[in-house]
Specification:
This protein is α/β, with parallel strands linked by helices. Helix 17 crosses helix 18 and helix 18 runs antiparallel to helix 19. The radius of gyration is 32 Å and the shape is globular.
Length: about 675
């Protein structure tokens, strides 16, 4: 348990915490929330002992260990991924040496009945028990399991950690903390460096973790799935709720409504009493009553309404300039870096106003494809065509890091603004919460969230009809993310967005492209539909791999052949009529309806295109003069659209056939 007593912290004249007290219990799952700059990361640093408060104290239960993952760090190891991960077992290794030392001592003694001999036996027994509890006998297996869960491949284990990006190196640091199994785990934005599948694995790990977990995250779904308690840091105070984030938001709103109603009623009562006092205080017959009411007013405990921090970014993207119907057409796109193939054979068409998401594990090519679209990677396989009149706005994954730290906030925008936009720089910065002295701050002193907001502000400097956003929500607080999402929903241009934030993507896009194992697979619908698809695929894989109840694994005598592992049990498939089978059936039915609807829509669109092509064929035959360059180009464009939609229709038909086969 950790006890936080009367904690106060100030930073550059701003109070982050003012006399704050609360307790972290042994198995708590706490989500820290609050706007950027509220003090969430500072509180984790103080709890971990990395920073001292101005006043107050932190009391940690004796024997408890704290594991702390900062938001950013620069590991300096040159070991392999696996060797660096195994350093998490330093204490376990020491315990193993202690067991070896105690065993050696016992083997050299023959005074079996002496008190010292029995003490040695007791120490050895205790050490063995602790060794077993921390999983000392399966260190390698535990390390491999965690690394695979966090997205590494077995082929990565023997590669030097220096070959990996900072994001992957942070995954190793997270793996080490998970393997150390401290009594209290402090995680600052752990999902920033993870993809959707790794986030799901981490959720399951933390849900069953035996110790306490305190985490900062701007991923609403991650908080809802992991935490059971929410502490909001706002205006120097904390609000503590024993519920996950989404329920906390509702309870906070209800609490403030009740407070406001009680406050309004009390103000009416105070006003009524004050009017009585003012009216009768000088009348002899009423003086005693007026005096009594004055004392009542002085003793009254005044109701206060929790002050709400209403600061938030506020903006809308400018209307998208006119462009052609096809914004991007890519055929057989692929990319290799030396001998490493990232992805290949990717056909992609983006139409005017279409919004799509790119998802998948890190390193599979999402950012690479974004850079190919932006022309930052000119050497690639296949062909890429950008439509006529397309103007692009780009937010790179490391956009905030690319800002010049020596420039001020104002200079950052002023140096690239042109025309009449320069007269609106202060207004634009104000929309992103930069005002007064803030606009003269050097970029290098800004927080991660402030740098992210400044990078977003640059997107408003000129109207565009295609936005390419690579992880735009990293370091943005909940409110800022919601406003960005709303602005994108209202945006009338085309959008390609790379993100691992499920809540942000939900309802934003109409198609999801999954980058996985060197291929790119389209999924109709938003990220929720994609996740349903992936779970369905996993279930189908399990069904295909499961051994029938009446079959023996390996040889007829039931023995296992080399490499086959243990025989599958008969209950690998869900029991007929069980809740699991019913849930699987419901998912299949939902998926079938969704695919059927998409097929019908495509059939209608293909029929319309083919009808239009037939009309043009007749017109060209009847009057060859109509075969102008413009009409011929239109005809070819319609043919390309029809071919593209026919390919989509064929892929959906295959998906439908698989679903129907699985239902048989």
């Amino acid at each position: 348990m950790i006890s936080i007593n009367k904690l106060s912290v100030s930073f550059t004249g701003k109070t982050l915490f003012d006399n704050v007290s609360f307790i972290i219990r042994d198995k708590d799952r706490i989500g820290l929330t609050g706007k950027n700059g509220a003090g969430k990361s500072t509180l984790l640093k103080i709890l971990s002992g990395k920073q001292e408060p101005d006043s107050g104290s932190i009391v940690l239960t004796s024997g408890h260990e704290i594991g702390y993952l900062p938001q950013e760090m620069i590991p300096d190891s040159t070991k392999t991924i696996l060797d660096e991960t195994l350093t998490a077992f330093e204490k376990t290794n020491q315990l193993e040496k202690e067991i070896e030392h105690l065993s050696a001592q016992l083997s050299e003694r023959s005074d079996y009945d002496s008190p010292d001999y029995h003490k040695l036996i007791a120490k050895l027994s205790e050490a063995n028990e602790r060794f077993h509890l921390v999983g000392g006998n399966d260190r390698m297996g535990s390390a491999e399991k965690v690394l695979l869960g966090l997205g590494f491949k077995r082929s990565d284990f023997e590669r030097s950690i220096t070959e990996f990006s900072s994001g992957w190196q942070m995954r190793v640091e997270l793996a080490k903390i998970l393997l150390k199994r401290p009594e209290v785990m402090l995680l600052d934005e752990p999902t920033n460096h993870l993809d959707i599948e790794s986030i799901g694995w981490l959720e399951e790990f933390l849900q069953t973790y035996p110790g306490a977990v305190v985490l900062v995250s701007h991923d609403r779904k991650f908080l809802d799935h992991v935490t059971t308690r929410t502490i909001e840091i706002t205006l120097g105070r904390i609000e503590d709720y024993n519920v996950p984030y989404s329920e906390y938001v509702l309870q906070r709103a209800e609490r403030r409504q009740v407070q406001q109603a009680a406050y309004d009623n009390q103000q009416k009562e105070i006003e009524h009493i004050e009017r009585f006092i003012e009216r009768f205080r000088y009348k002899a017959t009423k003086a005693r009553q007026a005096q009594s009411r004055l004392k009542l007013l002085e003793k009254m405990e005044r109701i206060e309404v929790d002050e709400t921090d209403k600061s938030a970014i506020s903006f809308r993207f400018p209307p998208a300039p006119h462009c052609g119907k096809i914004v991007i057409r890519a055929h057989d796109i692929g990319k290799c870096y030396g001998e490493k193939r990232v992805f290949s054979h990717f056909d992609f068409t983006l139409e005017k106003g279409e919004k799509v998401a790119l998802v998948g594990r890190n390193g599979e090519g999402k950012s690479t494809f974004s850079k190919i679209v932006m022309g930052e990677i000119p050497e690639h396989e296949g062909t890429l065509e950008i439509g006529a009149g397309v103007k692009t706005g780009y937010f790179a994954q490391n956009q905030a890091a690319l800002l010049d730290g020596n420039k001020t906030v104002f200079q950052t925008i002023d140096d690239i603004a042109v025309g009449e936009v320069r007269t609106r720089i202060r207004n634009i910065l104000g929309c992103f919460l930069f005002s007064g002295e803030d606009i003269e701050k050097k970029v290098k002193v800004l927080s991660g969230g402030e740098k992210g907001r400044l990078a977003l502000a640059k997107l408003l400097l000129e109207p565009v009809n295609l936005l390419v956003l690579d992880e735009p929500t990293n370091h943005l607080d909940m409110r800022s993310k919601d406003i960005l999402k709303m602005a994108l929903l209202q945006y009338d241009g085309s959008l390609i967005v790379v993100s691992h934030d499920r809540d942000f993507l939900e309802g934003l896009t109409t198609k999801t492209y999954e980058f996985r194992d060197g291929r790119v697979k389209p999924h109709i619908g938003d990220v929720s539909a994609f996740l349903d698809d992936r779970k369905m695929e996993r279930l189908q894989e399990l069904e295909r791999k499961a051994t029938p109840p009446d079959a023996k694994a390996g040889k007829p005598d039931g023995k296992t052949l080399p490499g086959q592992g243990t025989p599958q049990k008969a209950n690998a498939l869900p029991r007929p009529g069980s809740a699991e089978e019913r849930e699987m059936q419901k998912k299949k039915e939902r998926e079938t309806r969704k695919v059927k609807s998409a097929i019908e829509k495509l059939e209608s669109e293909i029929e319309a295109l083919e009808s239009r092509l037939a009309e043009m064929d007749k017109a060209f035959i009847a009057d060859p003069a109509q075969c102008t360059v413009e009409n011929c180009n239109n005809y070819e464009e319609l043919k390309r659209q029809a071919a593209h939609k026919t390919d989509e229709w064929a892929a959906l038909q295959e998906q439908m056939e698989r679903l129907l086969q699985d239902s048989d």
